[in-house]
Amino acid sequence: MNIATLLAPESVVPHMKATSKKQALQELSKRASATTGVDERRIFDVLLERERLGSTGVGQGIAIPHARLSEIDKLFGMFARLETPIDFDAVDDQPVDLVFLLLAPESAGADHLKALARVSRLLRDKASCAKLRGANNADALYALIVEPSTSTDAA
Fold first, then answer.
1. For residues 94 and 130, is the Cβ–Cβ distance under 8 A?
2. Which of 26, 73, 91, 135 has its CA 20 to 30 A from that of 99?
């Protein structure tokens, strides 16, 4: 699963403003709606429903909100770097500043899980996250996210 198949350059937000988890999910929903054509409120509702099952704040300043939607026919990703870290009810209680939104079709099955695993692998890498936090624009962020990893997974 290649992240470039999930994420378009225009789906990278280098300086997103949000002061709460709810506001971050609303802003992501609004932006995802503009790209996918799915109603903003529908996206927000499914993301909120998923968060009720357990926070998608995975720790180390990272959140990977995700949901399935019957209205889309392919996996969709969006990456945002928050201007100010926010409380996301993360598993380590640390504020979140890197968010990767993943929307999948209802029928995605294993592809949804493969995409989640690929995004998670990328964002678990401390060096990658440090580079993402240091990048200043959408093009640089996109390049860092989609470039094939040069490090081994055997760290």
1. no
2. 73
| CA–CA separation, 64 and 102 (whole Å) | 7
- Asked if 66 and 50 count as a contact pair (C-beta separation under 8 A), the reply is yes
Has residue 69 been placed in a domain?
Answer: yes
Helices 126-134 and 110-124: angle between axes, nearest 10 degrees: 80
The rounded mean pLDDT for the chain is 91
| % of the chain exceeding 70 in pLDDT | 94
In total, the chain counts a number of residues equal to 155
Q: Name the active-site residue from 21, 31, 66, 112.
A: 66
119, 5 in Cβ contact below 8 A? Answer: no
Position 108 scores a pLDDT of: 84
Whole-angstrom Cα distance, residue 45 to residue 49?
A: 6
Is residue 112 among the annotated active site residues? Answer: no
CA dist 84 and 55 (Å) reads 19
For residue 24, what are the domain limits? 8-146
Please report, rounded to a whole number, the percentage of residues in the chain having pLDDT higher than 90. Answer: 86
pTM, to two decimals: 0.92
Q: Which residues contact 119 (CB under 8 A, 6 or more apart)?
A: 3, 6, 64, 77, 100, 102
